[in-house]
Inverse folding.
């Protein structure tokens, strides 16, 4: 660690108060903030173990995951946890599973990675050969289910799966059980320094009614079932944790550029957490720049946070076949789009191998995924005016108005591997640098420009 020592007189001059101002438009999407009021940017990956259960649960996640993510400049992990592992029998919560979650959170804390605890489900849960809601909480009314091994997402449209979602949303005892599950998690991890918040359910779906097309059904499910569910679960979390952020997802249909039907969630710390997937690319197609998918997605997905004034964090994104001819352009355009409206994202998925994995067995980025590693400001002590990064020149620029005298004025930068020169102008100094990170101290109310240049 290389530390730059700053003379006391210089620091004192930076702490002298000056006038501050902010420029916020009516359509501005709020930024996610930390406990000190700093504007956060989250860049990271999903971390998961879907293969192991019981005594082996979470065993595929190791300390190496967090060490390697932080070494490449990422500060965020969306940790998948499963209700079927937490409560394998109704009313009996696995203390061993909670300890395993705690061990993973300990590694995140060690490497200064913020964690979102995600109550994950795929195709509802184990009753249908996947993970998520326990079998004891799965009610199908005897409706049929046919597996689709070559297209697992199609299983969401099987009658038994759709009916199971309806019961989860509507049955009073299942509502209470889901709320209790969240109280257990929030009570256990509310004081853990690595925990940023709670993603209440992954990619929720529901039951289509006769004559409905998919967008119409999705908006109805979001409006009539997901909105009240999220309000119930937010209340459950708040009964144990008053400070963590509550992340709420629309149905995955937003990936088709369909605005959500979600209503207001009555909680002061809500984050809108859509996923960013295109059905054609998920089926193996290349990115088609002429189709305008990114533009239509961005237009649709920003309506909710603008209306309800909540921050956005994209919980999953990234194509399966990332080495196709147009994927380099996709990653560049996707990164630019995400930077325009979100407070961050978690790519899918940090693992060592093929498929969706971010890196190969040697820990090297797989084709085009290196484009996700950019300089960014993890925490800005003030109001962000603009950020930009030009990969061609290797220049990152942040302009912000620093906070007032009674608030934090320490801004933190994350830098990808390599040699970087960091400079600050406007009554600000680069207080300290280490490999991959830098800290900037600014006078209160100053207009500050920070530049990081790849050498």
């Amino acid at each position: 660690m290389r530390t730059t020592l700053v003379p006391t007189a210089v620091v004192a001059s930076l702490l002298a108060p000056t006038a501050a101002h902010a420029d916020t438009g009516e359509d501005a999407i709020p930024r996610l903030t930390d406990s000190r009021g700093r504007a956060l940017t989250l860049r990271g990956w999903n971390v998961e173990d879907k293969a192991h259960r019981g005594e082996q649960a979470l065993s595929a996640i190791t300390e190496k995951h967090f060490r390697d993510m932080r070494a490449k400049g990422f500060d965020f992990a969306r940790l998948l946890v499963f209700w079927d592992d937490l409560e394998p029998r109704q009313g009996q919560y696995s203390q061993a599973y909670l300890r395993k979650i705690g061990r993973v959170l300990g590694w995140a804390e060690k490497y200064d990675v913020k964690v979102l605890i995600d109550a994950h489900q795929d195709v509802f849960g184990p009753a249908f050969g996947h993970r998520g809601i326990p079998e004891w909480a799965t009610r199908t009314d005897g409706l049929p289910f046919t597996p689709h091994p070559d297209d697992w997402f199609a299983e969401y449209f099987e009658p038994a799966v759709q009916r199971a979602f309806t019961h989860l949303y509507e049955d009073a005892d299942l509502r209470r059980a889901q709320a209790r599950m969240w109280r257990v998690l929030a009570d256990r991890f509310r004081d853990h320094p690595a925990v940023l918040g709670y993603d209440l359910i992954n990619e929720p779906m529901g039951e289509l009614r006769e004559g409905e097309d998919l967008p119409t059904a999705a908006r109805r499910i979001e409006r009539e079932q997901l909105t009240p569910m999220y309000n119930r679960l937010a209340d459950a979390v708040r009964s144990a944790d008053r400070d963590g952020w509550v992340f709420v997802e629309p149905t995955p249909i937003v990936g088709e550029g369909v605005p959500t039907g979600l209503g207001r969630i009555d909680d002061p710390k809500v984050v809108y957490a859509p996923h960013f997937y295109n059905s054609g690319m998920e089926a193996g197609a290349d990115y088609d720049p002429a189709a305008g998918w990114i533009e239509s997605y961005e237009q649709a997905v920003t309506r909710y946070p603008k209306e309800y004034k909540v921050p956005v964090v994209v919980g999953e994104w990234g194509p399966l076949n990332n080495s196709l001819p147009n994927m380099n352009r996709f990653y560049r355009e996707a990164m630019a789009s995400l930077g325009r409206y979100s407070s961050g994202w978690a790519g899918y998925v940090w693992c060592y191998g093929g498929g969706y994995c971010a890196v190969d067995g040697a820990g090297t980025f797989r084709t085009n995924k290196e484009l996700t590693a950019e300089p960014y400001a993890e925490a800005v002590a003030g109001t962000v005016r603009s950020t930009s990064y030009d990969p061609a020149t290797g220049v990152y620029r942040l302009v912000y108005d620093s906070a007032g005298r009674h608030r934090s004025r320490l801004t933190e930068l994350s830098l990808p591997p390599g040699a970087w020169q960091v400079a600050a102008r406007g009554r600000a100094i680069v207080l300290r640098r280490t490999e991959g990170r830098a800290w900037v101290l600014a006078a209160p109310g100053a207009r500050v420009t920070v530049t990081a240049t790849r050498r």
